[in-house]
Structure formats: C-alpha cells, structure tokens
Amino acid sequence: MRASKYLVPTEKENPSDAVVASHRLMIRAGLVRKSGSGFYFFLPLGLRILKKIENIVREEMDATGALEFELPIMTPSEFWEQSGRWSVMGPEMMRVKDRHDQWYALGPTHEESFSYLVKPLLKSYKDLPINVYQIHTKFRDEIRPRFGVIRSREFIMKDAYSYHLDEASLDATYQDMRTAYRKIFQRCGLKTIPVQADSGTMGGSASEEFMVVSPIGEETLLLCGDCGYNSNSEKTPFIAKAEDSPNGPKDKKEVATPGKKSIEDVAAFLNVRPQDTIKAVAFQNGKEKLLVFLRGDLELNEHKLKSYLKWSDLDMIPEPELKNSNLVPGFIGPSDVGEGFKVILDSSIQKDFAYVVGGGKEDFHIQGYVPSSEIKIQYETADVALAREGDPCPTCAKTLKAEKGIEVGHIFKLGDKYTKSFQIQVLDQQGKAKTLTMGCYGIGVNRTMATVIEQCNDDKGIYWPISIAPFEIGLVTLTKGEEQDAKALEFYENLKNEGFEVFWDERDLGPGFKFKDSELIGFPIRITVGKKFFESGEISIYNRKLDKDETFKFIDFDDLNTRVENLRQELYQELLGD
Amino acid sequence: MRASKYLVPTEKENPSDAVVASHRLMIRAGLVRKSGSGFYFFLPLGLRILKKIENIVREEMDATGALEFELPIMTPSEFWEQSGRWSVMGPEMMRVKDRHDQWYALGPTHEESFSYLVKPLLKSYKDLPINVYQIHTKFRDEIRPRFGVIRSREFIMKDAYSYHLDEASLDATYQDMRTAYRKIFQRCGLKTIPVQADSGTMGGSASEEFMVVSPIGEETLLLCGDCGYNSNSEKTPFIAKAEDSPNGPKDKKEVATPGKKSIEDVAAFLNVRPQDTIKAVAFQNGKEKLLVFLRGDLELNEHKLKSYLKWSDLDMIPEPELKNSNLVPGFIGPSDVGEGFKVILDSSIQKDFAYVVGGGKEDFHIQGYVPSSEIKIQYETADVALAREGDPCPTCAKTLKAEKGIEVGHIFKLGDKYTKSFQIQVLDQQGKAKTLTMGCYGIGVNRTMATVIEQCNDDKGIYWPISIAPFEIGLVTLTKGEEQDAKALEFYENLKNEGFEVFWDERDLGPGFKFKDSELIGFPIRITVGKKFFESGEISIYNRKLDKDETFKFIDFDDLNTRVENLRQELYQELLGD
User: Fold this and answer.
1) What does pTM read for this prediction?
2) Which end of chain B has fewer CB atoms within 10 angstroms, the N or the C?
3) Which of 18-77 (B) contact A at CB < 8 A?
4) Domain-wise residue ranges, chain B
5) Domain A245-381 = CATH 3.40.470.10
6) Which parts of the sequence belong to the Aminoacyl-transfer RNA synthetases class-II family profile domain (chains A, B) (predicted)?
C-alpha cells in the first residue's frame, strides 16, 4: 500500500478527552475517530487491525470445531420474555420499537437468539455437543462510556454458546475454549491472566475471565504468586487470618457508646480493634428484607451476596425505613432483629469468640457477645466478605496480591437456565428426553485491540505485535528526482512480490515526519532507503519494539529479503514464546 | 469439512411463507432460518456464501483504490438534522433513544456519517478524490418484508461515498465504480443490467441501478433491444408515437357528458380515442397545490413529477377538497383552474392539436380544445408521463420492451447536497475554498446472494457459481466397514491437501439422501466414491450446473486431481466468459 493513496491522519496532539494510552494513541495514529460518546469510526488502518484480530479468533474457534453463524442484531422482545430477561436487563440494553409497535433489543448478548435458533436443529444426542458462535456488532448503553473503545456502546464481540447432554461434555468444551482463548490472546501478543469469576445469578457452575493487568482496569484481581490461584475480587473467598481472631473483652455487658456509630469510633472508644467488632448492613429486594452481620473491619462483597441469595438486585435500606422496623442505625446487633428480616452471618465471624456488637438501642453497644450462645433467631452462614490484598490465598494460604484488570474474554458454564426456558431437549442414548446444559464464551474484539496498545506502547507510539499489525513492514523511502523515485519503487515492488505486507511511505514529506508517523502507527519492521543508500548503499532495518536500528550495506534484494524474513520470523516466534 | 461435524439442516418441505425460489431454497438448503418478520439467522453454510460475496466486493473495491472503513450503526440524530433528513426519512428509518434521551437512527445509509467523518480529514485538493466504503449491517423497517433476504429489515450492504473537487473527477470515479460493479456481479456469477434510474429529489445528476431481471422483481425496466438503452420505468422519458397524435373533432364546443367521469367513458361516449383527450390529476404537498394535465391514455409517473418539482411528498387531493376549490372532479379542464394552483402540462400534450378536455362543470366536456390558443393561465411543461412497453426508445426510437427487475446495486452522482450541509470544502489548486461534489455507490450483499439463487436453481435445488459456492466440492463417500472408511478418508485428505475446498459427506446415511442434499445445497462439483468404486474402481465427477455425471476408472490421485482441477478451472472460466 502506498501512503499517498491511503489515509494517514496522524495527530501530534493528544485528544483532550483521552485519559488512557490506547485511546490517545488510537486517535493520534489515525486508527479511529469519535462519532459520539461511546461510538467510534474505524479508519482503514484501524479496521485492518480489527479484522486481523477477528481472523485469529475465527481460526482458533474453527480449530476447536465451533461453527460460525451470523444472527440479527435486532432481537425480538419475545425471546427475552421467554428467558425472563426483558425486565431484568435494565437500561444497558438498548431497545427499539418497529413501525408495528413491536419491541426489539439491540442484542448485547445472544443466549436467547441462539437458543431459539438451535432448538429445532438439535434432534438427538448425536447432534451434540455443538458450539455455535458469531463475530458481530453488540450494543450496550454504558452509563459512562470511556477509555475509547475499551468501554464503548457499540462494539464487536465474538460470542459462542455450546449445548451439551451432560456436565462432562460441557466441561470438555469449556476446557477447549480455555485453551483456545490462551492461544488467541497469545497470537494477538496480549498477556492475559485467566481468573476465577463470579458466575452471577444465572446459576452457572464455573466462570473464568481473561484479564489484562493494567492500572486502568476497572476490576480488582487477587492473585497468588505461589500457587497460581487467580480470581476477580468479586468472587474471591475470604479467608481470615489467625491474628484477626477477636481478642476484645470477654465479659458480656452493655456499654454506653454515646454518638459512636461508625466501627472506627466504637473500636477506638472501647479500645478494641475493628476486627473485634461485628457490624450490620441492611438490604432489601422488592419484598424481601435482609440483615447481614460481618466482622467490623471487613467490607461486604455484594456480588458474592447476590450470588448466594440468587437476587438480581440489592438495595440498601434507608435509615428512616430501618427505624420503622425498630432498628437503630449504627447500633443494630444480632439479638436485635425484628420480624420479616432474613439474617446472614458472614463466615468471617468466629461464633465461639466474644465480639462487640450493636446494643439494639441508641448509644449502646454490647461487649463480650458470643454469637454461638447469644443468637436466638434463625440465620444462615455464608461467605459474603470482600477479600483484599494481603489476605490468605484460599488455595494455599499464602498472601494474595491485588492488581487492576481489564476483562477481554469470559468463559462461563451457564447450566440450564436458557435450555429450560427454551425447552431445549433431545433424546439421549436411552431414548429419554433430556434438557441440555449450556456454556457461553465471549471475547471483546475492540477491547483486545485497545489492551494490546495498553501493553505495547512507548513514548513514540505503538509497537504492534506482528500478527495484528496493520502492515508488517513500513518502508520509508527518501528520494530526490526521478531516478531515485524509480529505485524506491523497485524496493517496494520487491518486498510486495516477496509476499510481505508493506506500507510504503513515498509521500513528499521530510524524514522526521515520516519516521515519526511510522513509529506512532507502530509497524513492527521499518526499512529505510534514504540519503545514505543513495550515497553509499546503506539501508537500515528497524525493530520497532526494541527501538533498534540495524544498518547494513545493501548487497541485493535476496539478501535484503532474507534479513527481513528472518526478523519477521523472529517476531512471530516471540509471540509463541511468551 | 466433514458433514458429521457440521450443521446440514436441509428440509424436504417448502416453508409455507416462502413464495419465491431463493427464499424456499435458502431455507431448505439450510443456509438461513427465520428469526422474525424480515430477520434471518445466517447458518454456517449460508454465512460462507455471504462472506465470499463480501470478499469479492472488497477485492474489487480495493482494486479501484477505495478505502475500507467501519462506521457505527447507531448514527446520532444531529447528523440527520444537519442534512435535513431526520424529518424526511419516514418510518423506514428505525430510531432508538439512549438512556440520556438522545435519539439515534440505525443507519439505513451513511452519507451523513461519512461526511461528518471525512470533513476534518480532507484538507486540500491533494487529498482528493477519495472513495470510502464499508461492508456493514443496515436497517430498513420495510412495511412488508418479503421474499426472504431479498426484502428484509436487517441486511449487509457495501456502501461507498466518493468526494471530488469537480464533476470530471466525480465522473471518473463513477465510471470506475460502474466497471467494478460489472466485475463484482460477473465474479459472483450474477447477470445484471445497468439501467438509468431516477436520481430522486437529491439533485443528483446521474444514477444507474444494477438490475437482475426476474419475474419476482418489484421494479419495471424498459429495455431497448436495438441501441441498448435500458432504464427503470421510474425514469424513462416518455416519447409519443405519431399515430397517437389527437384526431378528434376540431370544432370547439361544449358537449354534455352526463355521468361520464372516467376517460374511458367520455371517449366511448364521444366516440374518440383516449389519446384524443386530456385528463387532470390534482396533488398537494403541505402548502402547495398542483394540477397536472396529461394525455387521457397515459399514467402519471410520480417519480418523474417529484424529481421535476423537487418535492419529497406527493399526495392526491381528496374530492371534497377539490370541490372547495371550485373544481369538479371528473370534469376539470385546463381553463378551469382556481387560485393557488401550480399547473403542469405533460409534454405528451401536442399544444396545437384539438383535444377533448373537462368542461369545468358537472356533466360537461369541451371538444376541439387547442391548448396553445385556449390556455390563459401560467403553466409549465414537463415530461411526467409513465413510459410503457411498446413506446419508442428515447435514444433510437425503436420499441421498448418491459421486464421486471430486482435492484442489487446502485451508483449515484449525489452532487453537493451533503457536502453543502456538512460544509465540506478544501482549498483548490488556486488556494480557493471549494465545496466538494459527491457520489455514492451501494451493493446489497444478501440480496446478491438471493438473486444468484433466483438465476441458478432447478428442480433439484441450487447450483452455485463456483466463486461463491459454500464449498467448491462435495465429496460423497458410501462405505461399509473400516477398510472402506479408511479409503474414503484418503480421498478426502488428498483433495484437501491439494487445496480444494471440500465438503465431505461421510454421514451414515443412504446414497439417495446424500445425493439429494448435495444437489439441494448446490456444490458445483460432486465426486462420488461409492459401491462401484469398491467393486470395480469406478468413480464419478458430477457437474451440478449441467446436471451431468462423468464416470471413469480411478487410476491414481494425480489423475483425479487433474480432472477436478480442470473442471474447477472451466467453471471459473465460465464466469468470466459470460
């Protein structure tokens, strides 16, 4: 490709609304332009990268035997009503009414559509397992679109759905997908960590997210450097440290704590540690009311709580409403629960130890409260506390480290939620109708592109992994006069005919400008044929990632092609070796 | 690909809602399934065809130097307001409101988006011309979706937009697109006719549609077999035949025509031909009122009328309203026009000849009415009559023939409508700011797929042009026992390794079933390795289009591969030779 016939709208200045590297560089390198909040135009250079990522995803999905489809973006409301999600999906799901007043969703995900589609196609166990996917546009009306294409409202996803007769078959495909995802991201030059994730309220039995560690990540990951246990903090079980066992006063008595509502204030006032106390949090969900008690120093993990309860919503109960239930905010204790409340004790609470708890009335707490002997009401015990950096690893008890992460992929055992609501059954080997079980597997294509930039940039711009670079080679020629122009063309034709993907910058611009553009855009290999070549036959091959120039005397095209091919191979090898 | 690992949901029965061949066969061959009215799931076999068509379109567009983009489907209402089309586009444009109450259209076309995008990218005449395109999903809320993917509500289009400093440059790109479209459809094995088309109310100066002649077409084409003039009847100039010059009574007088309102009744009653009369049609458009007079035997062409007037709407004036304007329906004459009416005389009216016209009052006409001397009011003359089969060709005066056509592509000189509203200007060679001129070029990808089937089907099913067949070769093997299975696998591996695209039907089904499936789906080449091979070494190569089997003694794979490659080449050659 010749630069003069292409569109290279590079920018010197950072766009004012771009706060992360990938967003800044995608705009500056002329890969995308903004159409509106959360919407991006893909320009030719950017689209090439996107399509290369799509192709890698497609190749690896096909290699596992998955079958590619393309489903309508517009999904009828009936599909969503059948699964019960029309009312659950909330304002993130964009909805549109047609001229006959029929409602549709602009598919943010396609469990319903694929289930509707495959139901009549699956007739017997012989048709199983099946893994169906598409690479297509999705919509999500983010309340705060940001970070460029990392959190946009219209984006490309690969979404796959597998159907199985039994759990063993689901697990086999789940493991295949796990392997395929590792290959996909590796081939894209993206370092990811699979972490255990919340399987949410859908009743799934396993779920892993492929995370890119990044300071701009919106997820908190807890990683164990020792045993390799990694999880999203939404999911991490909380393991208490021995030194956090309560060691406050053991004699039970009511103590006045005037005006001391927060755990910090109470602990300081009574001269105990926060972990010697128990605090209460109150929630509601439509009709149900809930009180959760957990160790005073811990935070509640709403994801784990929702998963445990199988609630999709969780709203704090406002103070006035608590008072209506005879509960005194700041002073609620486990012996103090009115009618109609479900009660959960977080498993961080050691029931045979003495704690400081709310006194059940204004300005009083109780010390020396031993839950096992004192709690008279019905309660359930569950792990609903948020694990933190420094907590013990749930697998090996070594110390967890926290990182921020961006999710680029997600694999999920869905169970029978959709196969039940769409009544997807086949006859098994014994001729008995059996409801299938299901998995789903997503990859954010645009987000993969952006996170590669987050990992592969320096102060000059982007250095693309060769597998997804818009072009493998940037050829910069600097010529004066027809004779030199002709020689430059010879270089271009030679490289092109040799099968290299070449972006030839033959524009009538100064060397500084052309070098800067090529480094900003990030072609992995740059070949310069400039003044030195015409003076003394010297040309250079530049490795963008290493920012390293190799200068040598031009012998002939064979020699040049061998050098370029060697570097090209080396760069592909690097990806696999990582 | 192995059939047993694929999805081949062929159907024996025709779907009840499918009235055209392509719709029936796409469902029966398992290429698509219906999701809802006007929405289709693309299954793996169907998607392969769609992607092959997309690739042909992409290759030919790229070969012209056009640059591929991908734009958001959601286009902000502001873009449409800037061009004035938000209120004009009507209910076919689907609209959606986001959580911040901002309106978007699901892009049915992208003149606005591309214009918004390219405006800041085009800085000088050196950046021109530029031709930008995408291959992406479009939405159109058809009032009556039908014929499967031929008229659906969500579909893939290639839409291109070119920007130019002057008309000569636009014309060059327009001609390039014309050539590229011919190549694209030829490579897809689709016979198309470019016809002159209505350039609508957008002020464009030229427009051609690429039409597939088909009895199910919704457009009427008028074709001249002599000079090659082809046009959509929406656009065809009407040329009067000499024998249709009026030859009714020449003495002017009022004649009673009690109850004779229709042209047929009046003509019969007065013993003249319909072409000896003049009729009136009344329209309105918001505020303006219009009376059109044309020869009694002709139909009004509303497209030509709207084009002439540059009106986007045209509503008949109801009879009661006509009466309010002192016009008597059925008896309106050219001397009888009240205040506030614009008047058009169709150019079919020979103004120096005597006609029968409305008398201006109930139950009366005037005969011997010579427009040139009688009409006192202001009027304009314009060609607004519908040309018909049998009329003279506007180019060579030979006779026009009518055909029905389906539009698969459209090229259009848009002029400066969008470049003006988006103020797209660059500095020309003299440093003067100049507003650009624009072209647009569309291809319906799904519709191309369906119309190929309309042209390439017989009572067995589809016969795909090899260029877009889901697989080039269907290998049918019929085996018993492990040894024969192993031999079959050898055939498959050989063909695959030779680089052929093979669909191997190794399913445990009878030969009849497997042959029928392969003929229904329409692989261009079928190779059968069956009973006869295992008995006497005989195999067959079947040419699906010719429905012709060639049986021969198997010698070795080299011989087989040569035979297959020869047929494959022949089938590709056929496309180019057409």
Assistant:
1) 0.94
2) C
3) 33, 35-36, 39-44, 47, 50, 65, 67-76
4) 31-237+401-454, 242-382, 457-577
5) no
6) 46-465
Q: State yes or no: cis peptide before A371, omega within 30 of 0.
A: no
Q: At the fourth CATH level, which superfamily is domain B31-237+401-454?
A: Bira Bifunctional Protein; Domain 2 (3.30.930.10)
- Separation CA A161–CA A69 (nearest Å): 11
The pair of three-digit structure tokens given for residue A69, joined into one six-digit string: 């489809």
Q: In this structure, which CATH number among 3.40.50.300, 3.10.580.10, 3.40.190.10, 3.30.930.10 belongs to the domain A17-237+401-454?
A: 3.30.930.10
pLDDT, residue A187, reads 98
Cα nearest neighbour of B62 on chain A: A1
Q: Using DSSP, state whether A387 is helix, strand or coil.
A: coil
Beta bridge mates, B529: B477
Chain centroid, CA A198 distance in Å = 12
Do B305 and B385 contact (CB within 8 A), yes or no? no
Whether B163 has its CB under 8 Å from any CB of chain A: the answer is: no
Residue-wise pLDDT tens digits, B87-143: 989 899 999 999 999 999 999 999 999 999 999 999 999 999 999 999 999 999 999
> How many angstroms separate the CA atoms of B131 and B148, rounded?
31
Give CA separation, A460 vs A14, A49, A515, A519, in Å.
13, 19, 10, 6
Q: Which of A197, A93, A142 is nearest to A405 (CA)?
A: A197
Domain B457-577 fold is Rossmann fold (3.40.50)
CA distance B96 to chain A (A): 5
Q: What is the DSSP string of A233-292?
A: TTTPPP---GGGS--S--S-EEEE-TT--SHHHHHHHHT--GGGBEEEEEEEETTEEEEE
